[in-house]
């Protein structure tokens, strides 16, 4: 399928690896020029070089911490006028409800709620002026079904979801869509970190931890960054213009819900 976005320009956050990289590669395959952001310059430049070589699109990099005012200003300067925004940030660490402090919640909100909102506020006016734009926020399956040990993520991403629910319907008349992708477990560094916690807590091997988690997923496997990226690229396509304010699960059926 021709997604109809060749020649568009996208900012993809946290895109040096994992799900962000999957999204960047899928957009590049569709002919989209990219602004890539991550904190680690070495991994970011390696990803950019790979994408340029494979897909022949223009790739600009900006190594910065987008959760800070200074870093966000750098990224937005590089991304001025983009047609597509993909927000993404690593989730807060797991833990117990009794251990989280106010500072823990503030850090989670900054990374997983307030930063995506700030990026949207900065870039949506340009999209509205052009009469076309796409925003995809990578959130979590925990928005649909809370994960007890990920209470910081549950809280921050639910807040972002509420913001998107209202804002998406205000910008839709201008040809701009905002939607959220809700990943379950995918074969990324985040999965390694979460499985490592299980290894430590239960005294089992990493292989046993992965097998145990996969057995609880109806698809009986972890997701891949490539298939996640393909879903993101479709939401950014011309064909997805009638999808507004939705929360789309990519979790292999792990969330046991009818709606």
* H/E series: EHEHEHEHEHEHHHE
**Spatial order of the strands in the main sheet?**
3-2-1-4-5-6-7
* Number of helical segments with 4 or more residues: 8
Helix content: 40-55%
- Which whole number gives the mean pLDDT? 96
Using the alpha-carbon principal axes, give the shape.
globular
Amount of beta strand: 5-15%
List segments where confidence is low: pLDDT < 50 over at least 5 consecutive residues: none
Number of strands: 7
Helix-strand category: alpha/beta
How much is the radius of gyration in Å? 18 Å
Largest sheet data: 7 strands, parallel
Question: How far apart are the termini?
Answer: 28 Å
Overview of the molecule:
With 259 residues, this protein is an alpha/beta fold. The protein is 47% helix and 14% strand. The protein has helices at residues 18-29, 41-55, 69-78, 102-130, 151-171, 189-202, 206-215, 225-235, and strands at residues 9-12, 33-38, 59-63, 84-87, 133-138, 176-183, 247-250. Strands 3-2-1-4-5-6-7 form a seven-stranded parallel β-sheet, with helices on both faces. Helix 2 links the parallel strand 2 and strand 3 (59-63). Helix 1 (18-29) packs parallel to helix 2, helix 4 packs parallel to helix 5 and helix 6 (189-202) crosses helix 7 (206-215). The model has no long low-confidence stretch (mean pLDDT 96).
């Amino acid at each position: 399928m021709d997604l109809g976005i060749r020649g568009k320009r996208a900012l993809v956050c946290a895109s040096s690896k994992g799900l962000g990289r999957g999204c960047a590669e899928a957009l590049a395959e569709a002919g989209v020029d990219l602004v890539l952001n991550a904190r680690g310059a070495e991994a970011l430049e390696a990803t950019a070089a790979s994408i340029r070589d494979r897909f022949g699109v223009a790739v600009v990099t900006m190594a910065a911490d987008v959760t800070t005012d200074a870093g966000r200003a750098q990224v937005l300067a590089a991304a001025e006028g983009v047609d597509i925004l993909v927000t993404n940030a690593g989730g807060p660490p797991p833990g117990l409800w009794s251990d989280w402090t106010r500072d823990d919640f503030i850090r989670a909100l900054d990374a997983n709620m307030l930063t995506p909102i700030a990026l949207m506020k900065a870039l949506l006016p340009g999209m509205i002026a052009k009469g076309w734009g796409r925003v995809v926020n990578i959130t979590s399956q925990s928005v649909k079904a809370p994960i007890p040990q990920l209470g910081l993520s549950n809280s921050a991403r639910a807040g972002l979801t509420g913001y998107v629910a209202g804002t998406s319907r205000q910008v839709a008349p201008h040809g701009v869509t905002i939607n959220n992708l809700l990943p379950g477990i995918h074969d990324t560094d985040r999965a390694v970190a979460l499985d490592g916690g299980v290894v430590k807590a239960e005294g089992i091997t990493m292989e046993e931890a992965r097998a145990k988690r996969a057995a609880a997923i109806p698809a009986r496997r972890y997701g891949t960054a490539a298939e996640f990226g393909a879903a993101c690229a479709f939401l950014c396509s011309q064909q997805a213009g009638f999808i507004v304010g939705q929360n789309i699960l990519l979790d292999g059926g792990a969330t046991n819900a009818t709606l």
